[in-house]
């Protein structure tokens, strides 16, 4: 039923360190994600969810196996090429917002556009639109320190979607928020997925949040042990 | 893009004003030191050159003994000149404005209860023409006084104040040692020489008087010759050398036992000395600039560590290595530039103050300013590069996890 494969992992493994300290965070993960999917990744702490998300986000490369983004073999790309891929096709929501301190919400949202060399006027318009989408248009001058946790997360979301990425990667986007804020955020993500067709891969450890996704993947010890869209042997 | 990077750098700098100012302090001091040294040094050179030009750049100075050649070249004692040698020059050489034979000694000058150690020059009235010196009051020696070796004298401003205070000393008398002199004139103030000597601390007496009553001989220590304008000093110098060789019986092939010095030589030597001194001081100042650069590097390293998460975020969002490199490099250069700018201002001000204290003019050299800017910019690039590269090479994963 998948029409258009966006992401394809084949035997992806990741080992941190070497020798006696070697730590195998991922062991041979096979995973295809189609355009427009909303995927939730779940699993106990240390099971390798963030590690895989970083690989999917081209921030990290697998130690073994191959990872294809559209028709690009990411593990073969140089550091700068992967940065360009992130710049143009990927949006990130980090575990713990990672906004720039003492920098206004607007400028935080503008950041990815600066690296895309979009001229200041247009940049500003796009950033304000993105802030409006997350309901923060009136807060554009505020720095992260002057915003609540939920608002900060919404700024982070605005920053991730401002460049209209092909795929949005979110690492525990509701991790630091109370239930009401969490639902607000998750519904926002789902609406992007539904209305704009942005593919979303989200790591979460809350089943309530995962319930919003179309597809749930369960991790255990660096492997996928369950995938709601297919049978895993 | 570069302009935005500069704005970004300015913001990062403004974010921590105190630290930024401490960071650039080294560069400020370095640039200020270089600027003030070079500016004060050029002032000193200008003053020396000007002073000697005032001595009369068309002045020749004839002394017995060989010209010094290199260090340790001892002066061989040679026969003194006499008044007759000076007369021979006056009569035998064309193109001269004035000739003044001189002899010098030091004496205690006494007037009433006032008492002052000074130098005494025995010469003729022509000396003032050669030295381009005029009287503030009184009159010069008459020919008769010179010939008779009369007890009359001219005094410099310093001697005047020391012995007579503010009143006019003309007509009063003073004693040099045991000999009594009548003051007939006061010289105009000439100020310090380039060597820091007080040129006004002297008493001038007729040469004959000095020879007869003070030195007890007929010696002339030096002959000053002033060449007429438009007459080449080289020709005159050669003429004097030939004349004196003949008079002193020096055979062809033998070396002169006297030397004729052109004031230009002295100018060059002195200007050379101040230039070397300036260069040395500037080199020392340059070292502090280097230290300033290391200061910038140090703080930039700390700043990179502090901003690891920011760098990680930027890299993850799509910044290339060179984007981050540029960001931190520009920050270092902007810092260094500020340091340079403040250093230039401080340097010029202190050069003006130093100039006033040591009495040299303020010579503004645009070249030095440009060089200082260039240099501080270079310091920024050189010492900013290492921290900037450290930032650019950060692994985004680790940078994002950094606490
Ligand atoms: N940079 C690293 N160096 C060494 N080990 C690492 C590194 N990153 C992750 N690990 C290890 O790899 C394993 C997987 O980590 P990962 O961050 O993917 O877990 P996770 O599933 O996201 O857990 P959590 O739910 O706590 O975020 C962990 O045991 C972790 O200690
Ligand atoms: Mg994680």
From TrEMBL, chain A:
SUPFAM superfamilies cross-referenced by the UniProt entry: P-loop containing nucleoside triphosphate hydrolases (SSF52540)
Any single Pfam family the record assigns to this protein: ABC_tran
Top-level taxon of origin: Bacteria
SMART domains, per the entry: AAA
Annotated Gene Ontology cellular component terms: membrane protein complex; plasma membrane
UniProt entry keywords in alphabetical sequence: ATP-binding, Nucleotide-binding, Transport
The UniProt record lists the keyword Mitochondrion: no
Molecular function in Gene Ontology: ATP binding; ATP hydrolysis activity; transmembrane transporter activity
The keyword ATP-binding belongs to this UniProt entry's keyword annotation: yes
InterPro entries in UniProt: AAA+_ATPase, ABC_transporter-like_ATP-bd, ABC_transporter-like_CS, ABC_transpr_LolD-like, MacB-like_ATP-bd, P-loop_NTPase
Annotated ranges, domain ABC transporter: 7-232
Family: Belongs to the ABC transporter superfamily. Macrolide exporter (TC 3.A.1.122) family.
Protein name: Putative ABC transport system ATP-binding protein
Organism: Desulfofustis glycolicus DSM 9705
Classification lineage: Bacteria, Pseudomonadati, Thermodesulfobacteriota, Desulfobulbia, Desulfobulbales
Automatic annotation (TrEMBL), chain B:
Pfam families for this protein: FtsX (PF02687), MacB_PCD (PF12704)
Boundaries of every ABC3 transporter permease C-terminal domain copy: 283-396
Protein keywords: Cell membrane, Membrane, Transmembrane, Transmembrane helix
GO molecular function: transmembrane transporter activity
Ranges in a coiled coil: none
Any one of the GO CC terms: plasma membrane
Ranges that cross the membrane: 21-40, 279-304, 325-355, 367-386
Domain MacB-like periplasmic core residues, every copy: 20-242
Principal cellular location given in the protein's record: membrane
Entry-linked InterPro entries: ABC3_permease_C (IPR003838), MacB_PCD (IPR025857), Macrolide_Exporter_MacB (IPR050250)
Subcellular location: Cell membrane
Membrane topology: Multi-pass membrane protein
Family to which this protein belongs: Belongs to the ABC-4 integral membrane protein family.
Protein name according to UniProt: Putative ABC transport system permease protein
